[in-house]
Amino acid sequence: MQLFYHPELTSPTFQLPGEESKHLVKVLRKKVGDQIHFTDGKGKIALCRIDSISQKSTTLQVLEETIAPEKPYQIHLAIAPTKNADRMEWMTEKTVEIGLDRMILMKTDNSERNFLKSDRLEKKAVSAMKQSLKSVLTEIETGLDFKDIIADPHYAPFEKFIAYVDQNIPNHLFELANPKNKYLILVGPEGDFSPDEIKAAIEAGFKPCSLGHSRLRTETAGLAAVHTLNLLNEIS
C-alpha cells in the first residue's frame, strides 16, 4: 500500500491543492478512477478515488474510512537541537518511522543552537509517516525552555527520564521503564546538561537512565531512546 497525506479528509469529497495535486498527477502519473489511500495524520485512513483533475487541483471521493486503534503507550522526546540542522532532520525521519508521538526541541544551558525551523522537520515527519504507513503524525514543538518542560504539569502522570553522560548510572532505560505507559525522556546537547539542570530534573521526578556503554551523539541518543521504548512495548 502507498499512503498519501492530507490533513482534511472530508466526506464525500475533498480537493488536493496545487503542488500536491501536481505531484500526484504529473510525478506519480495517477489518473481519474485510480484508488489511493490517504491519512489525515490524526488516525484516519481513507480509501479514495480520483474523480477529476484540473490544472489547479485534484478532486477525490472518499470510498471507505477506518480509524487506527490508539496505542497503549506514548513517547515524548525533549531534545536539544544540534548545531548541524541536517542531523536533526535525519533523527526526525528515523524516530517518526520507529514511532514517536511528540518531539520537543528545547533550549538548555549548553545548547549549540537555540532555534531551528520547524517547517523542514514537519516535512520530514510527514514523509516518514507515509513511508512507515503510520496514520498519526508526530507533533513537533520548537523553542521550549528546559526549565518549563520539567515543570509542565501535563507531564505529571508520565514516566520521566533524563539521559546524560555518566558511566555510574546503573540502570538502562529498558530496565527502568514500565510497558504500556506514557514516557517523557530528556536528551541534552553535545556539551550535555549542566549540573544544575540534572539536579533540577531529578528533583522534579526524572530518573537518570543509561542508553548503553557507548558515548552517543545527541541525535543518536534520541533515536536510541525512542527505539528502546518502542521495543519494550512491542515485546511486552
Automatic annotation (TrEMBL):
<feature type="domain" description="Ribosomal RNA small subunit methyltransferase E PUA-like">
    <location>
        <begin position="16"/>
        <end position="62"/>
    </location>
</feature>
<dbReference type="InterPro" id="IPR046887">
    <property type="entry name" value="RsmE_PUA-like"/>
</dbReference>
<comment type="function">
    <text>Specifically methylates the N3 position of the uracil ring of uridine 1498 (m3U1498) in 16S rRNA. Acts on the fully assembled 30S ribosomal subunit.</text>
</comment>
<dbReference type="Pfam" id="PF04452">
    <property type="entry name" value="Methyltrans_RNA"/>
</dbReference>
<comment type="similarity">
    <text>Belongs to the RNA methyltransferase RsmE family.</text>
</comment>
<keyword id="KW-0698">rRNA processing</keyword>
<dbReference type="GO" id="GO:0005737">
    <property type="term" value="C:cytoplasm"/>
</dbReference>
<dbReference type="Pfam" id="PF20260">
    <property type="entry name" value="PUA_4"/>
</dbReference>
<keyword id="KW-0489">Methyltransferase</keyword>
<dbReference type="InterPro" id="IPR029028">
    <property type="entry name" value="Alpha/beta_knot_MTases"/>
</dbReference>
<dbReference type="InterPro" id="IPR006700">
    <property type="entry name" value="RsmE"/>
</dbReference>
<dbReference type="InterPro" id="IPR015947">
    <property type="entry name" value="PUA-like_sf"/>
</dbReference>
<protein>
    <recommendedName>
        <fullName>Ribosomal RNA small subunit methyltransferase E</fullName>
        <ecNumber>2.1.1.193</ecNumber>
    </recommendedName>
</protein>
<dbReference type="GO" id="GO:0070042">
    <property type="term" value="F:rRNA (uridine-N3-)-methyltransferase activity"/>
</dbReference>
<dbReference type="GO" id="GO:0070475">
    <property type="term" value="P:rRNA base methylation"/>
</dbReference>
<feature type="domain" description="Ribosomal RNA small subunit methyltransferase E methyltransferase">
    <location>
        <begin position="70"/>
        <end position="229"/>
    </location>
</feature>
<keyword id="KW-0949">S-adenosyl-L-methionine</keyword>
<dbReference type="InterPro" id="IPR029026">
    <property type="entry name" value="tRNA_m1G_MTases_N"/>
</dbReference>
<keyword id="KW-0808">Transferase</keyword>
<keyword id="KW-0963">Cytoplasm</keyword>
<dbReference type="InterPro" id="IPR046886">
    <property type="entry name" value="RsmE_MTase_dom"/>
</dbReference>
